[in-house]
Amino acid sequence: MGPTSSPCHVAFLAFPFGTHAAPLYSLATALASADDDGTAIFSFFTSARSASSLPPVPRIKIFYVADGTTPGHVALNESPHLKVDRFISMVPINFNDAFDASVTASGGIGFTCLITDAFLSFSGAVAKKLAIPWITVWTGGPSNLATHVHADLIRQKNLSNEDDLGFIPGLSGLRIKDLPDNFVGGDLTKGFLKLLHGMKLTLPDADAVVCNTFQGLDPDLDSDFRSEFKRYYPVGPLSLLNPVQTKPEDRFGCIKWLEQHKPHSVVYVSFGTVVSLPGSELAELAHGLESSGVHFIWSLKDSFREFLPDGFLDRTKEQGMVVAWVPQAEVLAHESTGAFVTHCGWNSVLESIAGAVPLVCRPVLGDQPVNARMVTGVWRVGVGFEGKGIERGELVKCLEKVVKGEEGKGMRERMRRLKDMALSAVGVEGSSMRNLKALMEMLVGKSGR
Ligand code: U2F
Q: Helix 21-34 vs helix 431-446: angle between axes, to the nearest 10 degrees?
């Protein structure tokens, strides 16, 4: 970082649900390694639960923020929204206690910059009060961010389900029906919509908006965001820039199993860390996989095994493996993997691009339907289902197309092009690296160093 006059103290504030903390932690790790003289202080704020999946990094100190659960709290079957609401009702007081702990631990050195998840809009006011820069990070799909940025315009027009959002730069190909049900007409003063509306209102005040994407994936969005925000920095894919191994070991031997199979012949199935499909749909999925005859690896929490059809695990023990945790990024990067049945969480989409693996999309909530639409309708690197859920016969057809058919070859080819673009973005002179440097300069410059 060069000679110092006063130390930098950068505070990262994570949204402690889903896979939000991991990409922010990757960014913190990348910035900490770019601090050559090692004098800056990096404090990372998240809940104890979310921190438990983050590996220790020497330069980063983690501080716990209360999320409304006690240590013994079992939250297995709670809806994701309930957990979020409980947390949001405690914000920002729960952060204030952790802030004090961090400033004390660093010998009284106050924050010189806040880098926060875009969902935590209150942090703009905190930065303003401290008169320090505020950088906000959007961890979901960038097209989804555009729907929030332009939400007023979308809501003003009287649009029906099939209408295209092409009147917004970069959203051509998306339809009203790809947005969450309550996006138009929902109450902006309650729950998640309130959180998203607050975000939309405060983003233009941020000194920079950072996205986990790469320049060129959506060129129209790149230029739109550059004009909407004071500064816009796509720095992804963060999983390539600085991989964070959330759960270290391949304890079920997935990679070894993949080694025994032909290139592009195995389908990987996972629906991320937040959503759970209804039991009946899991059973359809199992039937479809079995009758397709395609080899598979399925990441499925043990508590959902009860929904698998009788005898399924036994009948398919040669065909596939069902395990509670998969080293997903590695599995998707393996050449035997030929398709990914997914909910289209943004980290999963990026990891699939990094492995050039076409997708079979079953989105559920949040940014997922929009991500899925980009995959199937715009980048044309995957297929979806006609109805809302998975049906066994349709799954068999999807897998035929993607794993065995000519269409799948075309998708893989287009995926390879996206992968090359992603790799060059994180390469030495790549756009994501340049943006990371610009971000670093912001931290140093504005902190008076
Ligand atoms: C929320 O996303 P999720 O956590 O549900 O899903 P992803 O963004 O796809 O991230 C899942 C991560 O968990 C990893 C996988 C991804 O990095 O590699 N993983 C794994 O390593 N092994 C497993 O067996 C299962 C998962 C939200 F629901 C989405 O809509 C958002 O797009 C996302 C980002 O904001 O957060």
A: 70
Instruction: Examine residue 237 and say whether the peptide bond preceding it is cis (omega within 30 degrees of 0).
Output: yes
Q: Let me know: does 156 contact 147? Beta carbons within 8 Å.
A: no
Rg (CA), the chain: 22
Q: Which of 347, 364, 367, 375 to mutate to test the pocket of ligand 1 (most atoms within 8 A of CB)?
A: 347
Integer angstrom CA distances of residue 424 from 83, 264, 365: 38, 24, 31
pLDDT in the model for residue 447? 41
Phi-psi region of 40 (alpha: psi -120 to 50; beta: other; left: phi over 0): beta
Nearest atom of ligand 1 to the alpha carbon of 270: 25
Residue 326 Cβ contacting ligand 1 at under 6 Å: yes
Please list the active-site residues. 20, 117
Nearest protein CA to atom 26 of ligand 1, as residue: 272
Ligand 1 centroid–CA 244 distance in Å is 13
The per-residue pLDDT for range 71-114, each reduced to its tens digit, is: 666 555 677 778 888 898 899 999 998 999 999 999 999 999 99
- Contact by Cβ (8 Å): 273, 18: yes
CA distances from 435 to 106, 211, 231, 240, 449 (A): 28, 10, 10, 15, 20
pLDDT of residue 176: 94
Which residue among 348, 351, 359 has the greatest number of ligand 1 atoms within 8 angstroms of its CB, and so is best to mutate? 348
User: Where residue 284 falls among pLDDT bands split at 50, 70, 90?
Assistant: very high
Q: In this structure, what are the phi and psi dihedrals at residue 281, rounded to the nearest 5 degrees?
A: -75, -35
Query: Which of 145, 148, 273, 323 for a ligand 1 pocket mutation test, highest count of atoms within 8 Å of Cβ?
Result: 273
Looking at every residue in the chain, the average pLDDT score rounds to 93
| pLDDT tens digits, one per residue of 136-152 | 999 999 999 999 999 99
Q: Which has the closest alpha carbon to 436: 271, 215, 230?
A: 215
Q: How far is CA 374 from CA 73, 106, 157, 403, 412, in A?
A: 38, 44, 22, 20, 15
Nearest atom (ligand 1) to Cα of 299 = 24
Is residue 369 lining ligand 1, measured as CB closer than 6 Å? no
Minimum mean pLDDT among 139-143, 248-252, 369-373: which range?
A: 248-252
Distance (Å) from CA 349 to ligand 1 centroid: 9
